[in-house]
Amino acid sequence: xxxxxxxxxxxxxxxxxxxxxxxxxxxxxxxxxxxxxxxxxxxxxxxxxxxxxxxxxxxxxxxxxxxxxxxxxxxxxxxxxxxxxxxxxxxxxxxxxxxxxxxxxxxxxxxxxxxxx
Length: 117
Hints:
Mean pLDDT: 89
Oligomer: single chain
Structural class: mainly alpha
Low-confidence stretches: none
Number of helices: 5
């Protein structure tokens, strides 16, 4: 999902859409940083999702931080984009160049390997 801002309502939309993608017998554990909208009182977490907040100021525990860094370094930095649509296009282009193998190589932290074992 690409949204013009991050906020509780955007997170609610994301969680609802993500929840619908899970099979009836699946439950997802979502590891999150402590952004304000990840733990807001107005957040509606579907029954088939559990949110696990990371400790404050611990980007080294958050696998997606390496993914964002990769995207910034390879696709999004040192560019001047004209408007919102150009930002959206560049972001989608960068995201669509990711492969499952690249995501695994960037985000496969040891604690994830233990959970998947």
